[in-house]
Amino acid sequence: MVEGLGQASIVVVRGGPEGPPVREIWTKATAGTHVRAAAYRARQSASPAEWRVFLETGIFTADAADKR
């Protein structure tokens, strides 16, 4: 579970269309964090492949950057 995201991480684990979970993560992430910025960039894309990359790896990379 990624810190500060509450139920959003559960949505990611359970899957489904990638767009809504990306939007939910962006909405719930703390302003000014790498997680929120990465979710915003993924959300701007119309590509489901880019949403999936964010959900599978990008969110964890961003979370690690926020912990540094």
Strand content: under 5%
Query: Main sheet, how many strands, which sense, barrel?
Result: none
What is the number of E strands? 0
**Number of helical segments?**
4
What structural class should be given to the helix and strand makeup? mainly alpha
**Helix fraction bin:** over 70%
The domain count comes to 1
Rg on CA atoms, Å: 10 Å
Mean pLDDT: 81
The backbone outline, from C-alpha atoms, is globular
Q: From N to C, what is the helix and strand string?
A: HHHH
Briefly, what is this?
With 68 residues, the protein is mostly helical. The chain has helices at 8-14, 19-28, 34-44, 48-67. The chain contains four helices and no strands.
Task: Give a written overview of the molecule.
This protein is an all-alpha fold and 68 residues long. It has one domain (8-67). Helix content is 71%, strand content 0%. The protein has four helices and no strands. It has helices at 8-14, 19-28, 34-44, 48-67. Helix 1 (8-14) runs antiparallel to helix 2, helix 2 (19-28) packs antiparallel against helix 3 and helix 3 (34-44) packs antiparallel against helix 4 (48-67). It starts with 7 loop residues before the first helix and ends with a helix. The model is unreliable at 6-15 (pLDDT under 50).
